[in-house]
Amino acid sequence: MDQFTVKSVLNIISEFVPQNASIAVADSEQFIYYQPSKQIDVGIKPGDIISEGTAAFKALQSRKKIGVQVESDVFGVPYYGLSVPILEGGNPLGAVTAILPSKPFVLPTSFLTVKTDDRWIPLPYEEIMFLEAQNRKTKIQSQRVSGFHKLNLSELEFVLPSDMFIRVHRSYIVNIHFIEEILPDFHSTFLLVMKDHSKIQVSQTYASQFRRALGF
User: Fold this and answer.
1) Reduced to 3 states, what is the DSSP secondary structure of residue 79?
2) Smallest Cα–Cα separation from 46: which of 27, 66, 22, 65?
3) pLDDT digits (tens, 9 = 90+) for 13-26
4) Which pLDDT tens digit goes with each residue over 26-37?
5) What pLDDT digit, counting tens, does each position of 143-167 carry?
6) For residue 114, what are the β-bridge partners?
7) Which residues contact 8 (CB under 8 A, 6 or more apart)?
8) CA neighbor of 99 nearest in space, from 41, 169, 38
9) Are residues 85 and 63 in contact, defined by beta-carbon separation less than 8 angstroms?
10) What pTM was computed for the model?
11) How far apart are CA 29 and CA 26, in angstroms?
12) Which ranges of 128-203 does DSSP label H, i.e. alpha helix?
């Protein structure tokens, strides 16, 4: 990846990763960029080969987003890595990794608790239609209730099950089981018609990832 591509990737990844995370960008063989944070610095240098135990290696091998605890025998410092592969035609070209001192969020494994006007309601994942970014919080929409969760959309993206939820826009994550139709839209993007008849655009940034995830 050239420098322009690295800058473009960093602009995109800033929407995904928790604040104060170190960021490492790699091609398919070595790290090409590293930005340490005040929270944690694992000492990566551009040109370092991607070793087998790293989060980047695991993301490239699996060709999917991963979150993994990496022990101190890799860099001398234990860390939690959130790594997203960069794919072209299904082939891994590189990976972007957020590096944190520990797993950033611990949530129940099967539901989100949302706040309505006067109460809190646990919503099972299978009832959630979509999530929308609103004023640094996340609006959770189901067919029976809507409310807000305290974590932002980027934070929730890393803990929601990837076989059920997919990010389609900087402001939206959708539950694929609630997509009624996928319509073509301008500039090779798509318009989703949800089962409640609401419409959500798949932005150009997420269009390729969306097609791969849904296999079309």
Assistant:
1) strand
2) 27
3) 655 566 678 999 99
4) 999 999 999 898
5) 989 999 988 888 888 778 888 999 9
6) 121
7) none
8) 41
9) yes
10) 0.64
11) 7
12) 153-157
Q: Tokens 């939820």 sit at which residue?
A: 165
Least Cα distance to 35 among 70, 10, 4 occurs for: 10
One-letter identity of residue 143: Q
Answer with the residue of higher pLDDT: 205 or 36.
Answer: 36
* Structure-token match 């990844």, residue found: 13
Let me know if 70 is exposed, middle or buried by CB neighbors in 10 A (0-12, 13-18, 19+): buried
Mean pLDDT of the chain, nearest integer = 86
| Residue carrying the six token digits 């890799």 | 74
Specify burial of residue 60 (Cβ count, 10 A radius: 0-12, 13-18, 19+): buried
Task: List the domains of the chain with CATH numbers.
Answer: 3-100 (3.30.450.20), 111-214 (2.40.50.40)
Least confident range of 71-80, 107-116, 188-197? 107-116
Which token pair is 55?
């989060």
